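Posting for a labmate who doesn't have an account.
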Amino acid sequence: MRFHGHVRPALPGLAFFEFALHAPPDDVERLNAWATAASLPHLPGAQEAMLNLAAWIGAFVERRQGAPAYGDVIDGIMTAQIEGRPITTEEVVGTIHLLILGGLETTAGVLGMSMVRMCQAPQIAARLRTSPGLIPGAVEEFLRLDGSLACIARTVRTDTDLRGHHVGAGEQVLVYWASANRDHQEFPEPDRFVLDRARNRHLAFGAGPHRCAGSNLARMNLRIAYEELLRRLDDLQLQDGADVAYHCGFNRAPLSVPITFRATSGAPPR
């Protein structure tokens, strides 16, 4: 018997709330909706979503200020110093805002993109089922080819010549991580998914001082998700006539992945 379903991963958001924020898990769904809307400024409702997100963060910070310290990243932000002075409340809210935008959509995006890939290339899932030891390496290859951070904006601080192109101080540039992850000088057969790729220095988490602070949590989320999905679901296919729509902007992610599958003996009772 085949079953139908939509992949809208809640796992990354729940794990992020529990391990990074120590925030109420009941708030994940609405915060995820606000974060998604806020990251699409060209659509109606984006400004309202941004304000709602900021209001939630402000209330969350107030609660944390009166609570015992967890020793987590939020405590680190709230007690940080910037160039020798204490961080301001506005800076705390802004930093946590960036943390939430970077933590909710990104891992879910990779998981959704990789599900589409496994439906289109069933040999990937088949090999991972027979050789689960390859899953950690597969996580890196999914991150390389299906990473959700497509690009990021940066402001040029000094006049620069880049391969014959002049970029003036104050101008903005878009850095395309997705393009770097298909650099043929770094990755042999860059457009092919290679489960056991020996060298995989991808930039899915960025690089330098702005490298993703949650990269290890993201890797753990993805590894566990693939282990459980492949143990419980077999014969993954996109539903007939499925038209997968994608989030656009700095992040790329399917809005939902309609699939059919056969439940395996490893699946929990329905």
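Reply:
Got it, the structure tokens are right above this. The CA atoms of residues 120 and 257 lie 12 Å apart.
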